[in-house]
Amino acid sequence: MLKVVLFLLLVTFSHVYAADKIERGTCNTVMESLALTPPNPEITKQLEKFVPAGTSVVSKAAADKLAKMLNISTSQLMIELIPLAKKMASPPISEYYVGVVGRAKETGDLIFGVNLEFPNHTLNQTVHGEQFMLARAMSLKVKQIESLAVSASPCGHCRQFLNETDGGSEMNIFWPKTEVFKLKALLPFSFGPLDLGETSGLLNTKSIKLKISKSLTGDELTLKALEAAENSYAPYSKNYSGVAIKIHRSKTIITGSYMENAAFNPSLSPLQAALVNLVAEGFKYSDIEALALVEAQKPDGKASSSQVESTSALLRSIAPNANAKYVKAKWE
Ligand SMILES: [Zn+2]
């Protein structure tokens, strides 16, 4: 009799556990989620030999080779890469380093994300690790992130930001505790693009067409900012905007496109997005020689938003000697 009771208890418990896992969301199978372990310092040492410092994207081909060499799954590799990603972080205020590794659905490439904090400026200009990763994904023309390994539980701000992407609610998120959750389980009863009538979310949007004054069409920096604005995501304010940064003593131009959010506040400005690419490409804020911002506003003249004041303020904090040009674009 006791054996029967124990058996029934075991069956009931297993069922509840499995149901709980399915409710929260699993990666591919419950077994895979159970097999994930925290980053192993020995593996970090091995990975450092093959993933050079400054890496911000690991191609699928390279990731497959690494996973095979280490005899681990791609999901586990993402967790093992977190300590390497963290090295790119710049959190001088909190000194709290965040590392994120996202996996692009179409290509299988692994994209790193870290947090950026700006001294002598408001905390609300802080770029979170998940935002960094999505801004990189947008620059790389990635349409969807399938899964995400994180060094710490994603904050509410980031859950909201990730929820803006197409299919984002199905994104698998690996905790440091190695459990796997779908975003929709971490953000129940969410508010997103669909609530505001948008059918295509962040990353998966078509570019728009804008025009600037003919006198500026010979200026390469402005043209790059225009291109970034045309590829930005601003369905709610129509404040389509982009930033282009010229690197000191170099022909390199780094760009960033505005990334808006249905809840407004977690939006990432075009300058923040450009700084993500600047850091990912191995440059410093002091390398900024000049900046151009191109932005459009609502064509009907109704209330919109503008990036000019916040761009100017943040630029003054990080690169006070940089030249800046602010250009209004019109709809074509
Ligand atoms: Zn966050």
Q: What's the average pLDDT?
A: 90
* Bulk shape: globular
Radius of gyration: 22 Å
List low-confidence stretches: 1-31
CATH topology of the largest domain: Cytidine Deaminase, domain 2
Strand order of the largest sheet: 1-3-2-4-5-6
Explain what this protein looks like in three dimensions.
- β10 (288-295), α11 and β11 form a beta-alpha-beta unit.
- The protein contains eleven helices and twelve strands.
- The longest helix is centred in the first third of the chain and has 23 residues, at 2-24.
- α3 (41-50) crosses α5 (74-86) and α6 (129-139) crosses α10 (270-280).
- The protein starts with a helix and ends with a strand.
- The protein is globular and about 60 Å long.
- It has a six-stranded mixed sheet with strand order 1-3-2-4-5-6.
- The chain is α+β, with helices and mostly antiparallel strands and 332 residues long.
- The protein folds into two domains: 51-196, Cytidine Deaminase, domain 2; 210-331, Cytidine Deaminase, domain 2 (3-Layer(aba) Sandwich).
- Bound molecules: zinc ion.
- The site of zinc ion has 6 residues, from α7.
- Zinc ion (ZN) binds at residues 128, 130, 154-155, 157-158.
